[in-house]
Amino acid sequence: MSRMVAETGIPAAGEETIAPPRALALLRPLQLAGPFVIALLVGAVVLFASGRDAIGTYWLLIQQSMGGTTQIANTLVAATPILLTGLATAVAFRSGIFNVGVEGSLYVGAFAAAWAGFTLKGLAGPLLIVVAVLLAAAAGAPAGGSMRS
Questions:
Q1: Are the C-beta atoms of residues 53 and 47 closer than 8 Å to each other?
Q2: Widest distance between CA atoms in the chain
Q3: How many alpha carbons fall within 13 Å on the CB side of residue 66?
Q4: Ranges of the chain whose pLDDT falls below 50
Q5: What is the model's pLDDT at position 45?
Q6: Alpha-carbon span 131 to 142, nearest angstrom
Q7: Which of 44, 52, 83, 127 has its CA 20 to 30 A from that of 5?
Q8: How far apart are alpha carbons 14 and 33 in whole angstroms?
Q9: What per-residue confidence (pLDDT) applies to 24?
């Protein structure tokens, strides 16, 4: 027998969903933006307490992360490994596995790919990319620890 999941609307394996009431659906944007706004306010308090200008700091953050195409590209380059690590963790949790080593797998795989890039210079570019990705997967996969939940 499956249990009903109402709070997220996203069923886990073998579960059904029910639609939330209309009033709760209207609060969904607040649920998404609320933690972000609270984090900004807490950050502003910490900046103010340390004698810094919170508005100037946040303006600089926006300029340096979204001020142009180069800044946006740099932001995406820096955020992609974090996003993929979070995705890997989410997939593991949804399948009932508690994976505690995703970040370690990322670092070990990155080190293996970098090693391949530096030492296998004689390979053609596309072949080197394939070898580096396969080596990263082979090195990173056993580095993560997981447990059945």
A1: yes
A2: 63
A3: 4
A4: 1-2, 5-6
A5: 96
A6: 18
A7: 83
A8: 30
A9: 72
Give the chain's radius of gyration (CA, Å). 22
Q: Where are the alpha helices (DSSP H) in the chain?
A: 22-26, 28-49, 54-66, 69-94, 102-119, 125-140
Check if the beta carbon of residue 20 is closer than 8 Å to that of residue 6: yes
Residue spans per domain, the chain = 1-67, 69-149
pTM for the model stands at 0.58
Q: What pLDDT score was predicted for residue 2?
A: 47
Task: Please give the pLDDT value at position 119.
Answer: 93
The CA–CA distances, whole Å, from 11 to 5, 16, 67, 102 equal: 6, 6, 39, 24
State how far the alpha carbon of 26 is from the alpha carbons of 95, 103, 104, 109, 133, in Å: 30, 36, 40, 43, 44
The helix (H) or strand (E) run that includes residue 5 is strand 4-5
